[in-house]
Amino acid sequence: MRKLAIALLCSLPFYAFAQDFAEKEVKTEVNEVTVFIEGAQVTRKKTVELPQGKTVVKFVNLSPFIDAKSVQVKANGELTVLSVNHQQNFINKLDKPKELVDLEAKLKSIDEKINLENTYLSIVGEQLVFLQQNRDIGGKNQETSIINLKETMTFYSTQLSALKLKEIEHNKNIQELSKQRSDIENQIKTITSKKEYPNGEVLVKVDTKRAGTFEFEVSYLVNNAGWFPTYDIRAKNISEPIQIIYKANVRQETKEDWKNVKLRFSSSNPNSSGVAPELKTYFLNYNSIPPVYNIKQGSNIAKGTVISADDGLPLPGVAVMVKGTTIGAATDVNGNFTLTMPSNGGTLVFSFIGYKALEMPFYGDYMNITLEPESLALKEVVVTAYGVNAEREDRAFSGRVGAQTKKAESIKIRGASSLAIPSEMVVKQTTVDFEIKTPYTVLSDNKSYAVDMAAYELPASYQYYCVPKIQKDAFLIANIVDWEKYSLLEGEANIFFEDSYVGKTLLNLSAANDTLSISLGKDKNVSVNREKVKDFTTKQFIGNKKEETRSWLTTVKNNKNQPISMIILDQTPVSTLEEIEVQIQDLSTGKHDKETGEVKWEFNLEPSTKKEFSLKYSVKYPKGRKLVIE
User: Fold this and answer.
1) Dihedral sign computed on CA atoms, order 45, 420, 272, 612
2) What is the rounded distance in angstroms from the CA atom of residue 444 to the CA atom of residue 440?
3) Class of domain 98-191
């Protein structure tokens, strides 16, 4: 109540003072938009003719989702901006898109036709009841002639047949109309949410020294917009550079269309997984067991359906993001989503206009998500802004994320299957912006628009990687140095190898250091097999000690027509007690990490050749104890 009273006190002087001001209503178009990972900064410019003296310039038909604290105004000329006020107009609501209006008109027409068909059906039903109730002819004590009986049967049969056919026809019409109605409702859901929103307004008090025309620039942040990066990664073979096509997937439902605007993207804020497995340290103790790896098809793929709690229908266009990253996706027309997850899992954030945001941890199972509607509570807010007069005319307009900029160093850019939209990367102090040089249109329909921002050709070294203890597939890894200068963000990537689509992977930058390793998926032309050698798997007693020996043989074969470089990982147990002794007997020139137990073989393999690697170790421990050993 106290906050509300303060807000009212702040707003009352404005209206009391505004009564002495002339008011001019101004309609503007969106000129520039900077889209952040979450939210967007919108800039509108307009030349306004004003009389001498004090005037309230009212900018109308703005988004209802403006962050009031972010509103800033710049005005050039001999005038002073006295104050800026943001408010919501609940009386004059925003106009609906023409496509939505047309669809709603069709929906109303179909409803009227369905009601008419139901009325006809009701009439036919009453006629059938009347006909059946009046089947008797003659009285109880009167005889009916055969001629009358035949005439009655003919009449009854004719009328009954006609009515039944009409009933079938009307039911058929209702079914067809209901299907059309369902299709239109689904199309409406892809355009916008069902709620109506107020008209956003920015009121600017100005004092002009003389009459004339003045240039205004209004900027503000809006919610219900954002973007996430995705990539197409193409490798023709393991001897040529790798190509990365950098894409921005932008969506917005701010209730204002961005038509032919100067667009920027800022970094501030099939189903087979291409994510290579990782070993867990094998700690050996009496009460421990070897690491367990639950490998299943698509184990790094998050899948699910998002529905609305109020009607149980699927929600298309819901933003699905991995919390704390730029990895994201959006639900399709049936409310389904698919997203490649980091190898260490994470929390998914679901957000959609008019619904409460929801966070859910990813456990690897199919996710059924229900979003709860939230009521819109937008109140008038008085905001602080700065005035611009003739002496401060060339003051730079600063956004919420301000920083000095510099152009990025020259990078070789080339197209893939089509040319990328002309763009320029601008590196700021804390963020990176991509400026799209061609005017771009993004409608307020919550649909995802993919914008190709750049195509990089990067020198890469290729190496195969396999952990046969977990998974016997060989993953092709592309290693890229100096990757930082390309300002990449975490995101999903479609993999194309040797001109074929091989699946999805994840561009995981959090684990990268000087070299960025990108998993290009599995290559079936490199076969790996790991099996236990039974002849060397023994158990014997030595004094008061028990000794167990384990031996593993790993075979690698290169079925490709070119040599390859490869890494094979395996492991030995790591003792955590002095009475448990692990002895390495054979590593086949592999490198052994005593702290983690990891065994690494790094080698080159010629075409149509194979190599074998032996891993053998023994474990000694007191014979009165039990120990689980692989």
Assistant:
1) negative
2) 13
3) mainly alpha
Listed residue (461, 5, 14, 418) closest to 204, CA to CA = 14
Tokens of 585: 């007997």
Residues 6 or more apart whose Cβ sits within 8 Å of residue 159: 131
What does 506-554 look like in DSSP terms, one character per residue?
EE--TT-SSEEEEEEEE-TTEEEEEEE-GGG-EEEEETTEEEEEEEEEE
Distance CA 395, CA 142 (A): 109
Question: Other CB atoms closer than 10 Å to residue 175's CB: what's the count?
Answer: 11
Phi and psi at residue 302, in whole multiples of 5°? -90, 125
pLDDT per position as a tens digit, 327-380: 888 887 678 888 888 877 788 999 887 788 899 888 777 889 999 887 644 444
Q: Which of 269, 197, 270, 203 is nearest to 54 (CA)?
A: 203
Kindly state the helix (H) or strand (E) to which residue 11 belongs, with its residue range: helix 2-18
- Spatial neighbors of 264 by CB under 8 A, at least 6 apart, are 32, 33, 34, 35, 433, 434, 435, 436
What residue spans define the domains of the chain?
A: 98-191
End-to-end alpha carbon distance in the chain: 67
Helix, strand or coil for residue 160?
helix
Task: Round to whole Å and give the CA distance between 276 and 463.
Answer: 13
Q: List, in sequence order, every residue forming a beta bridge with 491; answer none if it has no partner.
A: 507
Q: pLDDT tens, 57-111?
A: 999 989 988 888 889 999 888 888 888 888 887 666 555 666 777 888 888 888 8
Distances in Å between the Cα of 473 and the Cα atoms of 275, 276, 598 are 11, 9, 19
Phi, psi of 306 (to 5 degrees): -115, 125
d(CA 491, CA 227): 11
Angstrom distance (rounded) from CA 63 to CA 198? 8
